[in-house]
From TrEMBL:
Lineage top rank: taxon: Eukaryota
Residue ranges constituting the FHA domain according to the UniProt record: 35-94
Region (Disordered): 119-141
Protein name, per record: FHA domain-containing protein
Organism: Phyllosticta citribraziliensis
């Protein structure tokens, strides 16, 4: 029996544009539980909230990107899940299916600007802040 602590990292995502009606989200990211960033959909019962990574934006894929931490809980990574409109970190495109490190304070962009009829749908631009690290009770592995 091996006892190891569960490490979680609090990540605050601040909206940088009008691509997300929720201006600030705070989520907990744990070593063994990555989070999927994706489009909210009332038809599927997936509701955007200040404490989740579901975004009410039509240019984001249902499962757009995956955010995870390394085994030490010190670095954050983002992986594009072969999304239709892509993922950028600090203005640089993440390859479809590719993964990169995300520094605290970096700029994340999900999707691209899309014109529909006479309207424009903006991408979602967010800025993550890796806030605090928490160690919970020991879990048995």
């Amino acid at each position: 029996m091996n006892l190891t602590p569960t490490t979680t990292l609090q990540v605050k995502l601040t909206a940088l544009n009008d691509g997300d009606p929720i201006r600030e989200r705070t989520v907990r990211l744990s070593v063994d539980d990555p989070l999927t960033i994706g489009r909210a959909s009332s038809n599927r019962g997936v509701v955007a909230s200040h404490d989740n990574t579901k975004i009410d934006n039509k240019v984001i894929s249902k499962e757009h990107a995956l955010i995870r931490t390394d085994t030490a809980g010190e670095r954050v990574f983002i992986k594009d899940l072969k999304s239709m409109h892509g993922t950028k970190v600090d203005g640089v495109v993440v390859a479809r299916g590719g993964e990169v490190i995300v520094a605290s304070g970096a700029s994340l962009e999900f999707g691209v600007s899309v014109i529909r009829g006479s309207g424009r749908l903006p991408p979602n631009s967010s800025q993550p802040q890796h806030c605090t690290q928490h160690h919970s009770d020991f879990h048995v592995h």
